[in-house]
Amino acid sequence: DNSVTKKYTIAVIPGDGIGKEVTPWAQKALEKAAEGVAEFSYEQFDLGAERYLRDGAILPEDEEERIKKTDAILLGAVGDPRIKAGILERGLLLKLRFDLDQYVNLRPSKLYKGVTSPLANPGDIDFVVVREGTEGLYCGAGGAVRRGTANEVATEVSINTAYGVERVVRYAFQLAMKRRKHVTLVHKKNVLVNAGDMWQRLVDKVSAEYPEVSHDYSHIDAATIFLVSDPSRFDVILTDNLFGDILTDEAGAVVGGVGYSASGCINASNEYPSMFEPIHGSAPDIAGQNKANPTAAILSAAMLLRHLGFDEAAARIDAAVEADIEELGSTVRSTDQVGRDILARM
Amino acid sequence: DNSVTKKYTIAVIPGDGIGKEVTPWAQKALEKAAEGVAEFSYEQFDLGAERYLRDGAILPEDEEERIKKTDAILLGAVGDPRIKAGILERGLLLKLRFDLDQYVNLRPSKLYKGVTSPLANPGDIDFVVVREGTEGLYCGAGGAVRRGTANEVATEVSINTAYGVERVVRYAFQLAMKRRKHVTLVHKKNVLVNAGDMWQRLVDKVSAEYPEVSHDYSHIDAATIFLVSDPSRFDVILTDNLFGDILTDEAGAVVGGVGYSASGCINASNEYPSMFEPIHGSAPDIAGQNKANPTAAILSAAMLLRHLGFDEAAARIDAAVEADIEELGSTVRSTDQVGRDILARM
Ligand SMILES: CC(C)[C@H](C(=O)O)[C@@H](O)C(=O)O
Ligand SMILES: CC(C)[C@H](C(=O)O)[C@@H](O)C(=O)O
């Protein structure tokens, strides 16, 4: 009976390289997990390198408008060596994050049983990075003068607003309440004194509303050490756009490879759809070879479900992934084999 | 006969916390290594937290003028939890790096025999980070409006000049010629398109003068992965001020702790003295307990000697350190014991 299941439209943007291989598996997992609970229809968007090379379009306005009307977005990966760095990233991926005001970039890191960490003694790794997604050095507010001459000056500007920072700080403390109740602010406030000071003041302010949550601070350089020397110290890491980008890739490596790391670009006020994507890139070197691990993409489908309120359906995906990794994580399998194995467990 | 040994004046700035415990050992190693080769006199500078708390002085002009007249600087560490983040760092450490135009921040990372890396399979790690030292986000070119209100905006500006970038790029290629002839540029040119594009263009330009040196590029996020998954791929890493700060701390962790990592802030044109310091901080948690490892400070004395042209004297320190670590690296020793052990081998 359709009247009891809710209906949602999901925008699917496979993107480039292995994005195209892993995203169908995320969609299949979504579909299967939602059976009897929600009804999804999908709108496929042909965006990324091939489209750009074909007709020069990166994110046409009408397509963005259609994406804005969906309930959530599944994205694969964007980037292609044939295209100058920045064009697709800024024109498509970052444009969506910014235009859809996805101010929380949520990136869990967990060391699964069955995965070999590159660390000799990894300990229990289970933390979430709450990365700000709409400000900082990602604004595109730089410029250059006398380009190509000996007198060239190029700038990049990090813009941080109390409005933008406070909302993501609050999100981190709320998330910590559902976890081990600890927030670590990561910044470089001994050098970036203007932005760092504001981040710290807003953490101090918001923390007063969450007396059960403890919080501390780490410089970004020290945090990269802790991720290697003592990653289990972290519960919720709260940080800005650039530091979050760096820390989550390092974290992905520490938990055995970004092949297991999913992420959500979340508009926590729900004015626009949120977007879910693996944190890995398009990996041109292994693209088209049915080699990429679809696990991170499948885990991002679980994040999508959780975001829409389907906690049980999300938990079914998570449990299937966890069991799959524990049993078969160390075997070499094709993209499709991993996808089939995970779906079979759901 | 004094007339055959060259005379040098070394400014010694022990700074804060463990800086005060390790710097005397760096000075002793310097003294011993230079015996019969060079004659050093030392000027001690009481700069850092205690001085600041005592009389409010951070880097008085006349003292900076005296420092400028020396031949090289030995620095310990700067920073104290009693003082707001940024005051000493920017007023003393970064002020010296900038005023003395120390545009090459040279940071070798080597996994010594006898040191346990936190990585399960570290491989042969031996690379150098060439970090730009006088530009980027470290310029202090940010600001804030409506501070403390809901409408606060705080900015940080990364300033990059062709002049400043090209000279450090050239230094990296020259250094690569003396090593394994490979340079990896690390940046985030898919997001920081203005600065990233300039860095890449200048690398491409300078590389034409060094046809024997191969070069590649890695985004900063990917580089933090490689440092964990495949650190032996790197020979010379060339990067900007902030990325260099982050990568060298992570690299320090990967080679078994920043206790073994020395650094030079080098004015490669020799208009002003260069400065040598361990990359670790003042470590207030273990300060005053005779626990800090003086190895990194001692290795920075070797870098100082090499900078002044005393390669053999530098090699004596390096060899003593290497032998000490190989034999005793895993034993728990006091600061003074490690210092004595290394000196005894020289
Ligand atoms: C592709 C790139 C623009 C992006 C970023 O820097 O945010 C990626 O690295 C990520 O982490 O999602
Ligand atoms: C203390 C701090 C300002 C400094 C830096 O960021 O450069 C330190 O982290 C370093 O790496 O030497």
UniProtKB/TrEMBL annotation, chains A, B:
It is an enzyme of class 1 (oxidoreductase). Keywords: Amino-acid biosynthesis, Branched-chain amino acid biosynthesis, Cytoplasm, Leucine biosynthesis, Magnesium, Manganese, Metal-binding, NAD, Oxidoreductase. It is found in: Cytoplasm. It comes from the Bacteria. Its EC number is 1.1.1.85. InterPro entries: ICDH/IPMDH, IsoPropMal-DH-like_dom, LeuB_actb. NAD(+) binds at residues 281-293. The record marks 138, 188 as: Important for catalysis. Substrate binds at residues 97, 107, 131, 221. Binds 1 Mg(2+) or Mn(2+) ion per subunit. Pfam families: Iso_dh. Its main location: cytoplasm. It catalyses: (2R,3S)-3-isopropylmalate + NAD(+) = 4-methyl-2-oxopentanoate + CO2 + NADH. Its cofactor is Mn(2+); Mg(2+). Residues 9-342 form the Isopropylmalate dehydrogenase-like domain. Mg(2+) binds at residues 221, 245, 249. Pathway: Amino-acid biosynthesis; L-leucine biosynthesis; L-leucine from 3-methyl-2-oxobutanoate: step 3/4. Belongs to the isocitrate and isopropylmalate dehydrogenases family. LeuB type 2 subfamily. Homodimer. Catalyzes the oxidation of 3-carboxy-2-hydroxy-4-methylpentanoate (3-isopropylmalate) to 3-carboxy-4-methyl-2-oxopentanoate. The product decarboxylates to 4-methyl-2 oxopentanoate. NCBIfam families: PRK03437.1. This is 3-isopropylmalate dehydrogenase.
